[in-house]
Amino acid sequence: MCDENHNPPRPVLLAQMPNGESFRADIIDAVRIVEDETLIDSDLMRFAVILHFADKQTHCIGARLKAREAKTFAEQATQEINAKRTALP
């Protein structure tokens, strides 16, 4: 199937997240680190890594992470998303 200009459809590349889930790289708007809401009243400071999608939905790909773990997790996700986006024609 082609579009109205007779161009073939663009391939959809999936970005594999550090937790094993895969998402379309072209619809992810942002990767954020936020305080883990499940542990707000805890003495432990833990974080979650959240994906934000073009349709305004969010998805948690990592929770109850230490600060360094959350940073690494978010960096890996961002690198994978960017690599898939630049691979698109």
Question: How would you describe what is shown here?
Answer:
This protein starts with 13 loop residues before the first strand and ends with a helix. By secondary structure, it is of the alpha+beta class. The mean pLDDT is 88. It has one helix at residues 67-87, and strands at 14-16, 22-24, 28-35, 47-53, 58-65. The protein has 1 helix and 5 strands. The chain is elongated. The strands form 2 sheets. Strands 3-4-5 form a 3-stranded antiparallel sheet, with helices on one face. A two-stranded antiparallel sheet has the order 1-2. A hairpin with a 5-residue loop joins strand 1 (14-16) and strand 2.
C-alpha Rg, in Å? 16 Å
Main beta sheet: 3 strands, antiparallel
Question: How far apart are the first and last residues' alpha carbons, in Å?
Answer: 17 Å
**Overall pLDDT:** 88
What is the number of strand segments?
A: 5
What's the helix-strand series?
Answer: EEEEEH
Low-confidence stretches: none
User: Which structural class should the secondary elements be placed in?
Assistant: alpha+beta
Strand order of the largest sheet: 3-4-5
How many helices? 1
| Helix content, binned percent | 10-25%
Shape: elongated
Estimated share of beta-strand residues:
25-35%
